[in-house]
TrEMBL record:
Function noted in UniProt: Plays a role in the regulation of phosphate uptake.
NCBIfam families: phoU_full
Domain of life: Bacteria
Native source species: Pandoraea aquatica
A GO CC term assigned to this protein in UniProt: cytoplasm
Subunit structure: Homodimer.
Keyword Cytoplasm tagged: yes
GO biological process terms, semicolon-separated: intracellular phosphate ion homeostasis; negative regulation of phosphate metabolic process; phosphate ion transport
Segments crossing the lipid bilayer: none
Family affiliation: Belongs to the PhoU family.
Name of this chain's protein: Phosphate-specific transport system accessory protein PhoU
InterPro entries xref list: PhoU, PhoU-like_sf, PhoU_dom
Length: 235
């Protein structure tokens, strides 16, 4: 992932912490996929599995952050190495929050099952946006592993599609609840699920922006998608 340093141990430290980020990312992706499977099939076992695994993500975040702090204290990194470690600290925060959103999906699904209202709303858009969010996170982890800024810029652009699915579903959901007030309780659960998926896409986008920061040294969080493309292409 990085250029070689005079200290081989420094390279080892950096590679190990990056590997742990990818390990954490893989667990988050698994949580999202399992939560969506639990929702799509209304499988209580899958829902409970997601909720039970949440503590593993919290533990990983703390451990990786401690590793980054130790590397900074020992090696006093500069330039790209320092940007990498700072971005890892922010990346694992976003991964942990994406995991929180997967847990929210599971908890809302459990509430739907307990209320017996699971089939009261057509949620095809949620199924699609959930698949899109999981795929976006997978692409983000791959871009992080390769520090691929072109792929990262595409991820930032593609997050907009998840936002569009969310807005479309909200409009449909409001119509459902206005036409049949009996769907309001279930509708609110589905609304929170849709918002959780939209937030997962946002966290993947944030990580993609950190990748660009590591390589380019520029904070791109507040520039337009068009300017971002030009930045990545070196214009």
């Amino acid at each position: 992932m990085n250029d070689k340093h005079l200290s081989s141990q420094f390279d080892t430290d950096l590679n190990q912490v990056c590997s742990r980020v990818l390990e954490m990312g893989g667990l988050v992706e698994s949580q999202i996929v399992t939560a969506m499977q639990g929702l799509n099939t209304f499988d209580r076992t899958l829902v409970d599995e997601v909720i039970a695994n949440e503590h593993r993500l919290n533990t990983l975040e703390v451990e990786i952050d401690e590793e980054c702090s130790k590397i900074i204290a020992r090696r006093q990194p500069t330039a790209r190495d320092l940007r990498l470690l700072l971005s890892i600290s922010k990346t694992i925060t976003n991964l942990e929050r994406a995991g929180d959103e997967a847990e929210k999906i599971a908890k809302r699904t459990r509430h739907l099952l307990e209320d017996g209202a699971a089939q009261s709303v057509n949620f095809a858009e949620i199924k699609l946006s959930g698949e899109m969010a999981a795929q976006l996170l997978r692409r983000t982890l791959d871009a992080f592993a390769r520090l691929d800024i072109v792929a990262a810029a595409e991820i930032v652009r593609d997050d907009k599609a998840i936002d569009n699915e969310f807005r479309g579903f909200v409009r449909k959901l409001v119509t459902y609840m206005m036409e049949d007030p009996r769907t309001i309780s279930a509708g609110l659960d589905f609304l929170f699920i849709a918002k959780a998926i939209e937030r997962i896409g946002d966290h993947a986008k944030n990580i993609a922006e950190f990748i660009i920061y590591i390589v380019k040294g520029t904070d791109v969080r507040h520039i337009s998608r068009e300017d971002l493309q030009r930045k990545v292409q070196g214009e």
